[in-house]
Amino acid sequence: MTPKEQYRILCEQETTIPLFLQYWWMEAVCMGKQWDVLLCTRNGEIVAAMPYLCGKKLCMKYIIQPQQTQMNGIWVKPEYADEASELANNFISQLKGLQLAYYYQQYPIASPFPACFKENGFKVKERVTYRIEDLTDMESVVASFQKSKRKQLRKALTLKTDLNMSSDEFYNFHVACLAEQKKTINYSRAFFLALYKAAKVHSQGQIIAVRNMDGQVLAAVFLVWDATSAYFLISSYSHIHNKTGATALIVLESMKFARCKVKAFDFEGSMDPGIATFHREFGGQKTVYYSIEKYYKPIFRLFLFANRLRTWKIR
User: Which residues in the chain land under pLDDT 70?
Assistant: First the structure.
């Protein structure tokens, strides 16, 4: 079997692999592109894996972060986490064998690998997401909202939650919301429909919308989850209706929905200060994770800048 075939079977059996590293997720977000996986084994057992999106331009091969994918990097079987240094050296050797020009991935929270890669000359940079680690007591969760957000919720009493919004309507709504701000969407309709379909097939995704009494959509979010956390992956709000309280209600309803699935809620962090402030206002706690980067060929810096490949990374 190929490494990808082995990885598919592993993902079907192993419950500790995070959402963004799962085989089906990589299949969806790498639609129309190439992805593969590096594996480390012990006595025939896969103990660590690095799924990655790969590309090639001007005869230069590179690895970058897939669209809408907060974290990628390496999964390690929990009982082998204390062998991180040895496993990292194995992956570094395999990466060298790929003859890359450039490497960039964002690693899962609490991953033991960034320090190992830093010791081997890779650039490691701190990134931030905002999380609520325990949704069990929703009264306490709502009490952690800032006063302004609780006030918005009182304004939203006449609004309705809709769990039946179609993927096409969601995409159209997001496009319209961005147009209000004179912005354009950064993912295609085909990409979103494929991701949504895959998430629904695996029972790991849900569109949640907030409508007014006339049925008009005011806010919507595409929520995804794995065995431990739900992710506020793609959200959109009509700025024309920003005084209705819909932005606060969509967050609350997402948390209430997520609470029935998992314990933790991840706002699917942003390095944008304004968005970070928004997440903190709902009680999100700053949580650090890391990106790992290396230029194997310095000339790739010019290519990266000229072609704006950095727009493929999560911001």
Answer: 269-271, 305-315
